[in-house]
Amino acid sequence: MALGYSDLTLAASEKSSYTPPDAEESSNKMPAEAADKEQAEIPREGAAAAPDLSPRPIHKRAVSGHPASLMRSRSYGDGHGYTAYGEDEEVPPEGEQETDPEKEYEVQWDGDDDPLNPRSFSKGRKWLIVSIVSAGSTCVTCTSSMYTSTYSQITEEFHISRIVATLGLSLFVIGLGLGPMVLGPLSEFYGRRPIYVVSFFFFLVWLIPCALAKNIGTELVGRFIDGVAGSAFLSVAGGTVGDMFTKNELQAPMMIFTASPFIGPPVGPIFAGFINQYTSWRWTFYVLLIWSAVMLALISAFVPETYHPVLLRHKAIRLRKETRDEKWKAPIEKLQRSIVQTIIRSCYRPFLLLALEPMCLNLCLFSAILLGVLYLFFGAFELVFTVNHDFELWQVGLTFSGLLVGQLVAISTNPFWHKNYLRLVSSGDKNGGEPGVSEPEYRLPPAIAGGFLVPIGLFWFAWTIYPSIHWIVPIIGSAIFAVGMLLVFSGIFTFLVESYPVYAASALAANSFARSSFAAAFPLFGDQSERCQLSILKAIDACPSSVLRDIG
């Protein structure tokens, strides 16, 4: 199956320069204190980007010379990561398991009803928080695409070419891809709320030079830093959803949050088209400033800290103060890690996965090409509908409604794919598989279906942009593409999380970097090629009419 490489490739640390972080402090001293330390550290990897999908606590032992943390990972129950023992390793009986005296003073939750546990929040409060973080994610991604409607005014005011103006889009998207690798791991030390507040504050601040820029240099620098600041929010916001909901409740809120960043790109031009049609391009950023200020106020007022390890640290501090016993410790307080070490690991591990895992590389390239094509639409729509259909800017913005509707249709199919996933798990049981075991490949059917819809939508759009064809027809083609694109993203994301549960954040960071790289590069070369193609298509479209005129 597709997991053949992921079982052993990363585990072969002795044969490469890569040393897994779980084993780098003591590769030959697994028992006792090092084992407890490693066990506590494992969920940190997936905490920020893959909430509630981190591995369950296990007994760390080495198998065939490989660290146990890198053995085959499978999913049980509702598809949440779990690192299984190897076939040649026996699980120690409960009576023989090693005990740590310090465990008696390790601070844990008193069940989901613990008042400090985010899962004890009321349902209304949980959904309010989900709505706020989802709207914040949409705000960040809207900022990338709203800029594309300012091209005509910016090129005239700053006396620059179209491709230089496009750099403002590319640099923002590059910032979105690079930022999480450096800023995301900070949530492991300080929690989610400080990252939310600080990152969104800087996101708001760096919109100001974008709005007031007197030259293109100021605009481009502001856009890049704004992308980095916004990426920090995106990199940890999904974790809040997993912090608050149990596995049985997670599907609906996670579906809403996962879709929110992808809704931003098509929504942005719809609003920006009206803004730039009737007023200055600077009002695009003024509107974003107002929106960001409202989001920052809502985040500060209604989004509390939800990161469990940090909250347990707060609980441990309170217990030490109340009991005057310094033995009470939270798991995060036992870790001996530095911020620099964590950031370095966060930076190199995604590239290691891309270099050593063919399945990860192929899926990341597939999703990267799709996002690159999506960002090509920002230039293509303006050319197609202004040149071929004489649309004004506000009308061009409305043509992005096809992409938005397509994504909403894809979201609405989620219950069907979830039922199909449960059917595959059930059929696996009937075929002699282990009861309740989910293979990562069971998450790929949406991506397979989307893989067929994407080329259909692209061919539909490409061959219906003639002036003689009604403008709604290419918009329908873009909607079909959007359905396929979101289905592909959904299947790939869940596959990566289940295939690499211990390194879920790194797998998703690798995917994010690849997607951002392509999304930044495609618009730079796409504009010239699109203009050339449109000229050819207009000539082809004009041929039949000229021939008929000559005959007549």
Give a summary of the structure in a few sentences:
67% of the residues lie in helices and 2% in strands. It is mainly alpha-helical and 552 residues long.
Q: Main attributes?
A:
552 residues; Growth Hormone, Chain: A; globular; disordered N terminus; three-stranded antiparallel beta sheet; 67% helix; mainly alpha; disordered C terminus; 2% strand; single chain
In words, what does this structure look like?
By secondary structure, this protein is mainly alpha-helical. A 3-stranded antiparallel β-sheet has the order 2-1-3. The longest helix is centred in the last third of the chain and has 48 residues, at 504-551. It has 20 helices and 3 strands. The chain starts with a helix and ends with a helix. It has helices at residues 4-8, 32-47, 123-146, 151-158, 162-183, 187-190, 192-205, 207-212, 216-244, 251-278, 282-302, 308-323, 339-356, 358-388, 393-398, 401-412, 414-430, 445-462, 472-499, 504-551, and strands at residues 73-76, 80-83, 437-438. Helix 7 packs antiparallel against helix 11 (282-302).
